[in-house]
Specification:
two-stranded antiparallel sheet, 19 helices, 61% helix, globular, ZMY10 protein, ZMYND10
């Protein structure tokens, strides 16, 4: 995007009401977020994302994006189930529903790209508490997925079921990255944010659970598969001990939360927490430490923890802040879920043919194939043999092949 257009899109970002989800104004907002998301990815790959970061900080838009994230999450779990139970809910197209579900993915992807920077984290201000809450919910979903093979998500119309499950999984992985970037800034976070991560949600123990369960890795027909770059890949035997990006995010978050002096002062190393953390010793192999040398410090810390009794956390008198966005939306709309769903049946999910064509045309321009290919981290591979492919299926435009 040209700098002037990027600035205009950032300035246009604003919070929307729950009842307006999927409406025309909301769809324009989603279009802005999508364009900024793609711009952020391309800029980051070229090392030129500083402009967007400055714009988001200057115009204080990070709290707005976090508010949108929470709003669409509440819509998924409060409005959509009611919507599906209504007798007159017979959408002409699943397109508007899919866009609402995709909005969450676009926002968390944008936040993942920009939260690498300290000034972005600081500009979130009090909304960082809501973002930490959000990430905790997503990491809990990840841990649950590893036990039953799927993510616990709402049940949309049948044709969206698989897409919704895949999207929820990828969103949860993005939330893991965002949380790791937040832990990079533990020294500059508000005290309430640190208390929330360590004591309210006990994130160290949740991260241990993810190390144990490793939901981005699975076995199928005797072959090990790992999830990377949006796809499940078969891992050859020589690469099976190689650390994935998600393994790295979990270990770095643990390093940040356990080795920081401030965190050690506030965290309660009681019997349960100690036993959970000491499980990490079995995973700290020489091969893993060679890939992430900082884990030597973790190894020393755990060895010390095993033979000593840490002092109980110092009890400070602190006025603790609580997340406000989630509570505000719930209180504002309490008892109105069915009314909102009925409103959206009439105004959002029953578009005319003309409205569908117009919106489809706008999204075709936003999601152009050339641009989407530029965002792909690796070249497409043949659906049959797996080698690099240059020919796309002319019918579905999704699958690739190496020959005709």
């Amino acid at each position: 995007l040209p700098p002037a257009e990027a600035e205009a899109l950032v300035r246009a970002l604003q919070g929307t009401e729950l009842r307006d989800a999927g409406g025309q104004g909301w769809l324009r907002q989603h279009e802005y977020v999508t364009k900024l998301n793609m711009h952020a990815i391309l800029s980051a790959s070229a090392g030129q994302e500083q402009l967007l970061t400055e714009l988001l900080v200057t115009y204080a838009k990070i709290p707005v994006l976090i508010g949108e994230l929470i709003c669409v999450e509440i819509w998924k779990y409060k409005i959509f189930p009611v919507l599906c139970r209504l007798e007159d809910f017979k959408p002409r197209s699943t397109f508007p529903i899919y866009v609402v579900l995709h909005h969450e993915a676009s926002i968390i992807n944008l936040l993942e790209t920009v939260f690498f920077y300290k000034e972005i984290c600081e500009s979130a201000e009090d909304s960082i508490l809501d973002l930490i809450d959000y990430c905790h919910r997503k990491l809990t979903l990840l841990a649950a997925r590893s036990t039953n093979g799927q993510t616990a998500v709402l049940v949309p119309p049948q044709e969206l079921q698989k897409q919704a499950e895949t999207m929820e999984f990828e969103i949860s992985l993005k939330a893991l990255s965002v949380l790791r970037f937040i832990t990079d800034q533990v020294e500059s976070l508000p005290l309430s944010a640190l208390t929330q991560m360590l004591n309210t949600h006990n994130l160290p123990c949740l991260l241990v659970e993810l190390v144990e369960r490793c939901p981005w890795s699975r076995r199928e027909a005797g072959k090990l598969k790992k999830f990377e770059n949006g796809l499940w890949h078969v891992v050859p035997p020589e690469d099976q001990v190689k650390m994935t990006k998600f393994d790295g995010q979990v270990w770095i978050a643990l390093l940040n939360l356990l080795l920081s002096p401030e965190c050690q002062r506030k965290y309660h190393f009681d019997g349960f927490n100690r036993s959970q953390l000491l499980k990490l010793r079995a995973f700290l192999t020489d091969v893993l430490i060679d890939q992430l040398p900082n884990l030597v410090e973790m190894q020393r810390f755990l060895s010390h923890l095993a033979v000593t009794e840490p002092a109980p956390p110092k009890k400070d008198l602190v006025l603790e802040q609580v997340p406000v966005i989630w509570d505000h939306i719930l209180k504002k709309n309490a008892g109105k879920w069915e009314a909102i769903a009925k409103h959206q049946v009439k105004r959002v999910f029953s578009p005319t043919e003309e409205e569908l064509k117009l919106q489809a045309h706008r999204w075709a321009q936003t999601y152009s194939l050339d641009l989407m290919e530029a965002l792909t981290p690796e070249k497409p591979r043949c659906r049959v043999c797996g080698v690099e492919a240059a020919k796309r299926c002319s019918r579905c435009r999704n699958e690739w092949y190496c020959t005709r």
